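Thread amino acids onto this structure.
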């Protein structure tokens, strides 16, 4: 009994601490600083770090943080830590625009690929001044896709039909209740091809010099034309994925290295002397994210709380 009472009291205290931590995270915005080494030897500016994790469905947080870092004179470089399988094209384009604004302001932007930086993850990363990847990172998947389910045969079997009243012949295109017409498929394919072309254009625009050097090195072309540079991208931009090591061979990334390597490179390129201070945007999170012990939270309290629960119930 005494043991259980002690554990319950500890859990109550932990719960209070979690609640206070939640309120702090929710209402205390701004930047947090974390030194990568000895603070006393700092003589230069800071390195802003933005974590781009998960599917890219919304650009708001990343774009706002890029603008804050761009307007902060103490931040000399930005590292984008990307661990994403991709997402919406427009989302990536909005983030890319903010990356261009940071670069226009003479600040260094470095992309650091984690476990995966594919499709939209690569779309964002290629806009950086330099791209770092781990050898085993999954990247590439350059392409665009639209998919939908067709339940026409199933609906027929169970006696369900869909009634559609529309203003134009393409308004219910990709309906689940019927197959697309050849004309609809042609129209959608045109959209896909156009967006795909934009993706390739972005890679060529941002990595033209690297792709050119790669053609000179591997194929012995003395002066690659813009068409040859673009062809070098389209020849591998068919949806396939690459390891980080393979991506380096194709000129899609600049160096193999970890997040720490990317930080060191960014600080050096920005002229920061000594150990850089990493500046993170404080993230407003919900209660479930707090309990999950995400990177943006102080997870020690959370882990202690869950260990206490296991201890109480003998697990």
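Threaded sequence (315 positions):
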């Amino acid at each position: 009994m005494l043991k259980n009472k002690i554990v319950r009291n500890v859990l109550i205290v932990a719960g209070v601490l979690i609640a206070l931590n939640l309120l702090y995270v929710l209402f205390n915005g701004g930047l947090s600083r974390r030194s990568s080494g000895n603070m006393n030897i700092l003589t230069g500016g800071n390195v802003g770090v933005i974590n781009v994790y998960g599917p890219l469905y919304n650009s708001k947080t990343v774009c706002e943080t890029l603008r804050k870092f761009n307007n902060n004179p103490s931040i000399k470089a930005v590292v984008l830590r990307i661990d994403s399988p991709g997402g919406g094209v427009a989302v990536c384009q909005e983030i890319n625009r903010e990356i261009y604004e940071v670069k226009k302001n003479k600040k260094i932007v470095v992309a650091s690929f984690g476990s995966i930086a594919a499709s939209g993850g690569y779309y964002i990363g290629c806009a950086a001044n330099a791209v770092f990847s781990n050898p085993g990172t999954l990247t590439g998947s350059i392409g665009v896709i639209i998919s939908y389910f067709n339940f026409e045969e199933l609906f027929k079997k169970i006696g369900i039909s869909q009634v559609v009243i529309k203003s134009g012949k393409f308004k219910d295109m990709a309906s689940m209740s019927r197959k697309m017409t050849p004309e609809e498929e042609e129209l959608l394919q045109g959209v896909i091809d156009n967006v795909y072309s934009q993706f390739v254009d972005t890679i060529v625009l941002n990595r033209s010099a690297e792709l050119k050097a790669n053609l000179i090195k591997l194929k012995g072309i003395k002066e690659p034309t813009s068409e040859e540079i673009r062809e070098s991208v389209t020849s591998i931009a068919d949806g396939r994925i690459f390891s980080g090591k393979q991506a380096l061979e194709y000129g899609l990334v600049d160096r193999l290295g970890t997040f720490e390597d990317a930080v060191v490179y960014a600080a050096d390129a920005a002229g920061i002397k000594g150990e850089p201070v990493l500046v993170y945007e404080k993230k407003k999170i919900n209660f479930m994210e707090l309990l999950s012990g995400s990177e943006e939270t102080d997870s020690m309290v959370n882990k202690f709380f869950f260990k206490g629960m296991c201890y109480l119930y003998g697990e």
